[in-house]
Amino acid sequence: MSLAPVTAKRPTANYVLQRSQQEYERLFAQVRIWSRSTQRALDELGPLNGRRLLDVGCGPGSLWPELAVRLGPRGELHGVDIDAAALSQGRVRLQGLSAAPTLRTWHAPLEQLSSLEAGQFDVVLARLFVFHQPDPVACLRRLAGWLRPGGRLLLLDFDCSVSCALDGEAQVDQAVQLCNAAFTSAGLDPRRGTRLPALLQQAGLGEASWIDVAGRLLPRSAGISLLRQLLDSLATVIAARGLATDVAIRALDRQLQELAEAPGLVRVPDQVAVCWQAPE
After folding, report:
1. What three-state secondary structure class fits 216?
2. Would you say residue 180 has pLDDT above 60?
3. How many domains does the chain have?
4. Which end of the chain has fewer CB atoms within 10 angstroms, the N or the C?
5. Domain contains 269
């Protein structure tokens, strides 16, 4: 992987990462890495056949093939994202699937979804979405408002603060700290996943009904590859906030590339899954 010029891409709205095919591939890789944790979380929702599910911040539909199987042909899958190109990719991912649910997509930011009435959905899914919200408490209240009585809100988000090199490579830790500093400088919390239960309380929603934390250790090559992709996606923000120069980012990327060839392990972010049920 080679870093693209930091001026070639533009983050949009509250999403500080890039929007490109390379970024979509990084999102698909995340689905594969944390697939077992995600499966456990979806299982916690119970049978979804024939249900109405809203996937908020769905991106390129990373989970849609799995959700389509669970919802079945009598179900409805509604996807919301501010990236029209990502939504198009999501629609393509469902083409050719037998017994796919009814699909509807919404190209709009959360605050402009006035056409979505309260109490419409059996499940609201927000995967790696609350992380990017500057006001997570208001966001959670809005998500919960779309649930029918007894409906479930499923949140999946990362705690990026735990990432590290188990063998003590300073360059890995430097890259992790730089990425987390970029999130913090944009008003985001690298520990958002771990704080989700407390945020539910702050939103006046009460306690979560189920919580799961999944930690992963990856071979150094895979862990560093994921870290380099994140560093690339945040390069514009890092340079714009004066956290590091373009030259320094590229130098660090080359050092990481060299480190990836040696044996070892890298701890990647924890995926935190939190389920909340609306009152009957």
Report:
1. strand
2. yes
3. 1
4. C
5. yes
